[in-house]
Amino acid sequence: MPFADIVGHERQLASLRLALATGRLHHAYAFTGPEGVGKKTVALALAKTLHCSEAKHDFCGRCANCVKIDNHNHPDVRVVSLLPKKNDISIEQVRVLDKELSYRAFSGGKKVAVIDPAPLMNPAAQNALLKTLEEPPAGSLLILIAAGAGGLLPTLLSRCLRLSFAPLPARVVADYLISRQAMAAEPAALVAAASLGSLGRARSSDLAELAEKRKAWVAAIGNLAQGGYGARAALAEGLGKEREDAFEFLEWLRSWCRDLLIFRATGSERDICNLDAAQTIRRQSQNARVEGLLALWASMAVTEGRIRRNVNRRLALEDLLARVAGVTS
User: Fold this and answer.
1) Angle at which helices 290-308 and 243-266 pack, to 10 degrees?
2) Which tens digits make up the pLDDT trace of 12-56?
3) Do residues 245 and 301 lie in contact, with contact meaning Cβ atoms separated by under 8 Å?
4) Which domains are assigned to the chain?
5) Element (H, E) at 290
6) Contact 196, 251 (CB under 8 A)
7) Which of 49, 61, 279, 309 lies at a C-alpha separation of 20 to 30 Å from 218?
8) Which three-class secondary structure state does DSSP give residue 97?
9) Which residues of 112-147 are buried (b: 16+ CB within 10 A; e: fewer)?
10) What is the spatial distance between Cα 253 and Cα 218, in angstroms, rounded to a whole number?
């Protein structure tokens, strides 16, 4: 599967391909964006491009190196993730990675490391990685994958070239389901709307539950300004019971905020994620100011970081929902 077969993210792919063609690939990248939109796919595609024996500045997906990378057993490509029964990525994992990056590549290309999800590195691990980034081993490439900047040290991010990945428009997800998954047009449109711009989620079996949650969230957001503190407290209480519920809501809220910005900028629903709620979002966008939406976007990253640091989830969400109410009032 060459770059041309990757769904969406044309700007990000063009940037990476230009860097490959000109020999100006950065030593470290941070790929940020919602879960399941393709960040890891692009990271591994870049790794395959650096090691593919059949294509130049691209990858074939069929040669021995490409297959080994897909199977996670290539000696020069390492994916660091959460170990079973662990709550974070440890300093020991980072130290092992640092040692591996110092070795010369077996295949003659670069040593590539992907850390996913990077915000799960504990503070000691992040500080250890910072030392690696300050003096990167020759011939190495490091890619951090994260839903957002929350949970990552600013000094760590400052040493990475950041590529932001947006949710895929609902129409793009629907086209993928129709052309590559042989799904009929009507169910594809429904699944695409519920996927929040994520191909990974579109292929999962949990969309019915998420679709119901989205309907409830759209309605709740619309009532925040009129409902006052009581409405915010009730929503925060429900969302804060489980950590994953809070993260799922934050992911949806990013897609909602992005859709409002698109409506404000273009007046069109062509590229929005929540296509089935287009009329509601169009109405909400009329009262939303761009400055307020951008401030809200930054607040979501702060809230995510607070929750990852085990700050009281309900209070963190209450603060965020107060900003949401201010944007839509």
Assistant:
1) 160
2) 999 999 999 999 999 999 999 888 899 999 999 999 999 999 988
3) no
4) 3-164 (3.40.50.300), 206-328 (1.20.272)
5) helix 290-308
6) yes
7) 309
8) helix
9) bbbbbbbbbbbeebbebbeebbeeebebbbbbbbbb
10) 9
